Structures are given as structure tokens and as C-alpha cells.
Amino acid sequence: MKGNEMRSKGPELLVDLALHTAAALVELAGVEGARAEQLGREVADRMAGHWGGQNIYFPMGLSYKLSQRDRSIYDKFNGTNQSDLAREFGVSLQWVYKIIKAVRAEEMARRQGGLFENEEDED
After folding, report:
1. How many helices (H) and strands (E) does the chain have?
2. CA distances from 103 to 2, 32, 55, 67, 84 (A)
3. Hey, which bits of 1-123 come out as E strands?
4. How far is CA 87 from CA 32, 77, 83, 103, in A?
5. For residues 1 and 30, what is the distance between their CA atoms, to the nearest angstrom?
6. Contacts of 107 (CB under 8 A, 6+ apart)
7. Predicted local distance difference test score (pLDDT) of residue 7
8. Which residue has the higher pLDDT, 121 or 97?
9. Contacting residues for 24 by C-beta, under 8 A, at least 6 apart
10. How do residues 28-82 score in pLDDT, each as one tens digit?
11. Residue 113, CA distances (Å) to 3, 15, 82, 107 in order
């Protein structure tokens, strides 16, 4: 079933989800086109079954993106290997510094958030 045929048979959001899922499966997992389309439709059907009828907000996913490549950079950072990480991940040295600073800030906020969670309960 081609993308145009699929588009006419379902709500636009679900069709778009199915098409993007199929494209990701082909590009990232090497799944054959027809099988990827079938799996994309299955994912869209499951999301419709799980979240159908609800208004769903999709955040931009900045912290999610951070938690993938950027988290890998941060995890491999040893305090002196910024240049090596820039080469390994194909980013600028300045970008490595920004990533390390951002992940540190996120870690600090996460840890400090936990320090004050029960403070209101004590009053």
C-alpha cells in the first residue's frame, strides 16, 4: 500500500505517524519497505487504541534528544577529552562544552528537585 493510498484511509495524524514510523524503520533498522509500512500502520493502530479520543500534546522533545547523543557525550566525558568527543560525534568543540554544561545543569536540577519534594509535608 503506497503512502497516498494509506493517506485516504485514515485520520491525518495516524497516517502521518504510520508514514514516519515506516520511514524510521527503513532508515534506521533496515526494514524492507512493505514490512516497514505494515509495522508503521500497526504502531499507529496501537496508539489510536491506547490514546484514541484524547487530546495529546507532543513536546518538542529537547530533553529526549539531549538524553540520547548528548547523554552519550556526557557519559564519555572524562574532564579532558572534549576534542576527542567532538571528533567522535562530529560536532564542534564549542558544542561539546555546551552539551556538558547543559547535561550538568539538567542533572543538578533533577537532583535538587528531589531535595525539596517533601518539604511541604513537614509543615
Report:
1. 7, 0
2. 42, 36, 31, 9, 18
3. none
4. 32, 13, 6, 19
5. 19
6. none
7. 44
8. 97
9. none
10. 899 999 999 999 999 999 999 998 888 877 766 666 666 688 889 999 999 999 9
11. 45, 39, 29, 10
Domains in the chain with CATH codes: 3-51 (no CATH), 62-117 (1.10.10.60)
Q: Rounded distance, CA 114 to CA 63, Å? A: 18
**Mind listing the pLDDT tens digit for each residue in 75-113?**
999 999 999 999 998 889 999 999 999 888 888 887 876
Q: Locate 89 and state its grid cell.
A: 560525534
Q: What Rg, from alpha-carbon coordinates, does the chain have?
A: 21
Q: What is the pTM assigned to this prediction?
A: 0.47
